[in-house]
User: What shape does this take?
Amino acid sequence: MRFPLADGTRLALSGSVRRIAIPQRPGAYPSPRFREEAPGRFAVQGLRKPADAGAMDAWQTGLPSLRPAMGRAVRRARHLGVARHCSVCSARVRAFARFGDPEREDARCPVCHSLERHRLAWLFLERCTPLFDGRRRELLHFAPEPVFAERLRRIPGVQHLGVDLADPRADLRLDITRLPFADGERDVIFCSHVLEHVPDDRKALRELARVLEPSSGWMILQVPLRDAPTDEDPTVTDPAERTRRFGQSDHVRVYGWDFTARLRAAGFDVAEIHARRWLGARDAARYGLADEALFYCTRTPDDA
Ligand SMILES: [Zn+2]
Assistant: This one.
């Protein structure tokens, strides 16, 4: 499989690449109400925490739950259409819902609740990486979104480890700037919308480069981006000012396309994947991807 890079060249990826049908399975995003009701149950160290209401049913009763599947089936029927296609849950719907603050058009899948970044990442994983070839891989997933983590866990061969600084639903709580892993220990890293929260993101990137397997390992990174140079200022701590400048009260910066240079400085070879350039305008619109982008990174060879 070859895919276009930002500089107009094309990058060949090693390993077998194929499309697979994604089996329908539970994995509904927990509702805010459910998350409020159940946090105490998740705070048990060492247990795999149920990621959604259906998994909680199974956890409590030992029997599979029909709740998420039924909810999804109802939403699938209610939103059925041809204009939009969700790459995460395979639903074909009339439209994606508005979402965010400020609201974005065409953002959220009404069936599985995936956002633009999830749909681009899943499409890229399916079409351009060897993740589905059944080989055993250690996958390190930062800030594991339920919509994604459940699906990644079910890929044959994938040993999924969800980590987060604070979220009790993660398998492990850790600091991205001090990873408790040996050099080159992780085959795949997925890190989406994390670094804009991290004060020393350069240190975090060096840690990611250190733990990534150097010859065949790869990483997918996503950050909020804008068409201007990266804006960061550690003295800005007022939540309202952070929202105004960086887009969210707990963001410490907003990245521009110079983010690529920051990745290269940390020891990565980088391919910028722009949804519209990669898929074409028509397919990008069909998957509701707008201006979404991701960064595909491998370790820069030592002799480079
Ligand atoms: Zn969906």
